[in-house]
Amino acid sequence: MCGIVGIYAKTSDIRNLKNLLLNMTSSLQHRGPDNWGYYASPEIMLGQTRLSIVDVSSGHQPMQIGDYIINYNGEIFNYIELRKELEALGIRFNTTSDTEVLLRTYIQYGVDAFEKLNGQFAMLIWNRKEKELIIARDRFGIRPLYYTEFDGRFYFGSEMKVFDQIPGFQRNYNPKQLFNHALLWNTCGTNTVYDGINSLPGGSFSIFRNGSLVKTKRYYELGTTYKEESRSYAETEEEFKTLLDDAVQLRLRSDVPVGAYLSGGIDSSVILSLISKHTKKAYKTFSIAFEDKEYDESAYQREMVKRINTEHHTVEITYDKVDQAFPEAIYHTERPVFRTAPTPLFLLSELVRKNDIKVVRTGEGADEVLWGYDSFKEVRLLEFWNKFPESKLRPLLIKKLYPHLNHYSDEQQFGLMKMFYEGFLDEINNELVSGNIRTHNNKILKNYFDKSHNIEFDKLELLAEYNQDKPGNFNKWSSLQKNQHLEMRTLLAGYLLSSQGDRMSLAHGVEGRYPFLDHRVVDMLFKINDDFKLRGLNQKYLLKKGFANDLPESIINRPKRPYMSPDLKSFMRNGKLTENAAFFLDDKLIKDYQIFNPKWVDRFLAKFENGTPENIGYRDNMIITFILSAQIAMYWAKNPRKFHLPEKLLTVAINDY
Length: 657
What we know:
Elements: E1 2-8, H1 14-26, E2 35-40, E3 44-50, E4 63-65, E5 68-76, H2 79-87, H3 98-109, E6 119-127, E7 132-137, E8 146-150, E9 153-157, H4 175-184, E10 197-199, E11 204-209, E12 212-218, H5 233-250, E13 258-261, H6 266-276, E14 284-290, H7 298-308, E15 311-317, H8 319-333, H9 342-354, E16 359-361, H10 366-369, H11 374-387, H12 394-401, H13 414-422, H14 436-442, H15 459-467, H16 479-496, H17 498-506, E17 511-513, H18 519-526, H19 530-533, E18 534-535, E19 538-539, H20 541-546, H21 553-557, H22 568-571, E20 572-573, E21 576-577, H23 579-584, H24 587-593, H25 598-606, H26 618-638, E22 650-655
Parallel strand pairs: 2-22, 13-14, 13-16, 14-15, 16-17
Antiparallel strand pairs: 1-3, 1-9, 2-3, 4-5, 5-6, 6-7, 7-11, 8-9, 8-10, 11-12, 18-19, 20-21
């Protein structure tokens, strides 16, 4: 895993541009602390910091083969199979790295190569002969790739902080996109929360020629090959278990020690169970425990460790640890978040690295592809209510929506809840039906924006923006399949794989691997019977039934509980903000940044002058976390850090001029 940087524009000022390239590259050393390299030419400059995992002694980047140069971040898990395919065509290799396999696959097949890849990647490929630059990203956006056009040049980077090194460039929020991000937990299309900075969508590639972006195209789209299939449950379960097992085996490929995250939930436990069948090496697992028992799942973690017998390590999280590490976590997320959950993962990856582990497997993606989120149950509930408006089962269904929330079993609350959910029935057929509750809860943030931004909640405009990039066969899908598309395009790509995944692990030079996001698994699960994934309101039915004999019964049957971390309680003590939070929420800094209305922020904080209540609602936790993290992210954009690349770690220096 690595950090990549690029500058694309014909120049005669090679020396200054090369210095800029090195400054940009230096800001990504956390992603690739093992070594670094660069390629410099009058047309393009490429920089890379490397986390060595496969073919540690060679495979350095940027890598050149003839007229092609690659700058690549990620892993190609099926590189062994691809290498054999190419060798059968008479192609010979100089290294055992997946980088060389990737570049030779591209040289052989062109952009059709991307469909052959099973991996997580972002890449820049320069064709010296044709003067053509290709950029590409993996199917689900596991690895990031950003670009901006400034002062006649295109700049590329694994993270947006690389652009802070460009003289005269300043990251500034786009208020409209920042609000869209608040509503959907991601922006639509190529937009980011910053003016002029774009993100290449997952499953896409772009072509640049003559100093211009000439084409962007998707090579993968969820559900494009969807056809209804009539298969028995037994056949489906067998295929799923075989595919997932193979996905785990592919992600065991590494020339360095590997480990796994263990949350205590079914997803990571299934992955750990499958890993244990395929390795006899000493194995390390890593977990988060919370001092606040409301968030703690360590009892389930210990059960799984005892069953598999791993070398287990735990980081215990307190309110103070969240408060102290939050600004550093936001330095890496580079954008606002809505809960503090990334912070414990930031501290966990630090523990992983201290134990000399560079690679971890996680259960990320299972909730999207096996329908484990509450949003899937909400869609099913609304569809049932719409079809049977007089049904007496409504109270029972509401109780089953959120088993981890005690007030949902309170009969006295039912009337209010019934009114709340019925309010969404008129929108049962629009594309954001499953996002209605999220946008309904988060639209309150418009009140906190500075009035000069004229922020308003416009559902039709949000729908139009989302619909610009939906698949052509979208309307043939079930409501639950449509919800999966929404969750994977917004929550998964924009938050879980970024703010909780890539950024938190690679902040400490640790690569995360996600077997549930093997595209073969995702595509297979998308087209099976809806009821195999959500049986009534029983989530992830296929996973639970398929692995019932491999896990402790307590883990199989435990109610779904979202991973959470203390929010408001981490930033307030006895009615006052902590020193960290007070610095970023100071009236002067809020006025300087002109994002939020300081009066509204003060009014919100005044609610807690007499202390924080024992039970804090979703909205209050979300408001404080979003505003605070937005302020912190802007602070880092306005105060970029400076780093230097160690000369002794330079492995590639190609001066093509």
